[in-house]
Amino acid sequence: MATPQTSSSLFGLDALFDNPVFAGGIGLASLGAAAAFARRGAIVSLGAARRRLLVNVEISKQDPAYPWILAWLSQPRVATGFIASRITRIHNLSVTTRTTNSRVAGAEGPVNASFFLQPGYGRHVVKFGNAYIAVNREKHSTANMNTGEPHEIVQLTTLWAYRHTFEGIFAEAHTLAAKANEGKTVVYSARGMEWSPLGDSRKKRPLGSVILDVGVKESIVADVKDFLSRQQWYVDRGIPYRRGYLLYGPPGSGKSSFIQALAGELDFGVAMINLSEMGMTDDKLAYLLTKLPKRCLLLLEDADAAFVNRRHRDTDGYSGATVTFSGLLNALDGVAASEERIAFLTTNHIERLDPALIRPGRVDMMTRIGEATRYQAGHMWDRFYGDVDISSLGKEQFLRRLDELGLFGSNPDGTSSHRHTSTAAIQGLFLFNKSDMQGAIHMAEGLIPRNFEAENVGSDALQK
Ligand SMILES: Nc1ncnc2c1ncn2[C@@H]1O[C@H](COP(=O)(O)OP(=O)(O)OP(=O)(O)O)[C@@H](O)[C@H]1O
Ligand SMILES: [Mg+2]
Fold first, then answer.
1. Which residues lie closer than 8 Å to 304 by C-beta, 6 or more apart?
2. 276 lines ligand 1 (CB under 6 A)
């Protein structure tokens, strides 16, 4: 009974295959399947071939090399040959505009502007040596939690055979970046939880342009240079390679200017944190200090803010800073403190600082940068009027006038005048009288500080 059934079902199957419509359908379906297989196979093998034949380098925006590579990409290149020049054309560009206040003669518009074109987002091809490099600049949909900026990458792809060109590209991009910053000082400031350059790099300030009292500048410069030459000594002894300096004194005495000039002299950048800034917390300070940019002097302005926070908040009615005293100490030499750094702290209120700060490892050298002295006033005069006041008669007159006004702390009769002026004020006077040294002498009275508490003592003494 079973056999006829089987034969009848087999018979049914044969009949089905004999049906031209069905057979055609099967044929088409298998063709389709074969094509799909072939496609998949091609994709897989292409992917494999791509992986074997090509090399990718991905540079993320967080990497220091990112701006260098972008700058390198925006270099003008002359592609030789018909094909090369067609392939390497860049169709998507993005613009970076820099404006300056100076205006070229005859130029129109509110400010002087220069435009830098960079390859925009998308794909481009550039030629480096003999290698074609595919460039893909992409903006991601995710963003940096700290700054809110979207993540970005640049991907460079070339043939495996040309993989060594990347070294050349990075070296060239680095040299280019170094050249762009030559003679400049980069100032970093904390933006969110990250360091970022504060505006364009500034022209280096010559050390000679900051005039401190006899020997002050020289002793700090010698100490920093000595420290820099002893890195191995510290490493060999397992001591953290750190040094701290505290510059204190009245406003406008040249503390910040000196640190900037020193950074230029050493070919360092400046990483600046204002401790009295709103939103600067202990955590943030400690974190930033562990992430210091390389080859930078750390500059902590207003070091007393942490102490004001602790002691003087009520009396000053000031509660802006949220950095605490222990937060500052820990950031400077706690377990999490960075292993290598040179820190400069500045303050106008040395009396507010705590002795715990002035301990080797935190602050190793303390220097007062005080009110203008005779020596400084004389040197500043030379810098401004040296070329017109050949005989130095003007300088003598000026210094005599300052003596008469008791601006160096003592009156002509030897009594104390309790009156001083700042180097910033002298600079202001000279700037006002740029090409008029007599004007500077006549206006010297303007150097008398206006809100000077002991002014009455001084003027009494003068009237005597
Ligand atoms: N000793 C100096 N030599 C040359 N320039 C000076 C000197 N002191 C001050 N100046 C000039 O005065 C201005 C203010 O100086 P700077 O900002 O360095 O003072 P500061 O000591 O940091 O003041 P503050 O304590 O208020 O921060 C600058 O333009 C600087 O060029
Ligand atoms: Mg300052």
1. 347, 348, 349, 350, 352, 353
2. no
Residues in the chain: 464
The Cβ-side half-sphere exposure at 127, using a 13 Å CA radius, reads 14
**Does ligand 1 lie within 6 Å of residue 252's CB atom?**
yes
> Which pLDDT belongs to residue 457?
46
> Which pLDDT score, from 0 to 100, does residue 170 have?
92
* pLDDT tens digit sequence for 237-246: 988 899 999 9
Q: Are 299 and 346 in contact (CB under 8 A)?
A: yes
Q: What is the pTM of this model?
A: 0.75
Beta bridge partners of 124: 135
Quick one: which of 281, 461, 252 has its CA closest to 372? 252
Note the pLDDT tens digit of each residue in 406-462.
888 888 888 888 889 999 999 999 999 988 889 989 898 888 887 645 444 444 444
**Class of CATH domain 202-309+321-363:** alpha beta
Q: Residue 427: CB within 6 Å of ligand 1? A: yes
Q: Is the CB of 210 under 6 A from ligand 1?
A: yes
DSSP 205: P
User: Does residue 149 surpass a pLDDT of 80?
Assistant: no
Q: What percent of the chain has pLDDT over 70?
A: 87
Residues 44-69, mean pLDDT to the nearest whole number: 84
- For residue 209, the 8-state DSSP code is G
Nearest to 333 by CA among 432, 239, 396, 402: 239
Q: Which of 287, 389, 274 is nearest to 334 (CA)?
A: 287
In the structure, ligand 2 is a single-atom ion and the residues with CB under 5 Å from it are 255-256
Distance between CA atoms of 72 and 49, rounded to whole angstroms?
29
Counts for the chain of helices (H) and strands (E), in that order: 17, 17
What are 8-44's pLDDT values in tens digits? Answer: 555 566 777 777 777 778 888 888 888 888 888 888 8
Substitution candidate for ligand 1 out of 217, 255, 257 with most atoms within 8 A of CB = 257
| Nearest atom (ligand 1) to Cα of 348 | 25
Radius of gyration of the chain (CA): 35
CB burial string 23-44: b at 16+ within 10 A, e below: eeeeeeeeeeeeeeeeeeeeee
Ligand nearest to the CA of 210: 1
At position 458, the amino acid (one-letter code) is G
Q: Residue 301 Cα, ligand 2 centroid: separation in angstroms?
A: 7
User: Is the CB of residue 158 below 6 angstroms from any atom belonging to ligand 1?
Assistant: no
Q: Supply the pLDDT for residue 102.
A: 64
For residue 316, is pLDDT > 60? no
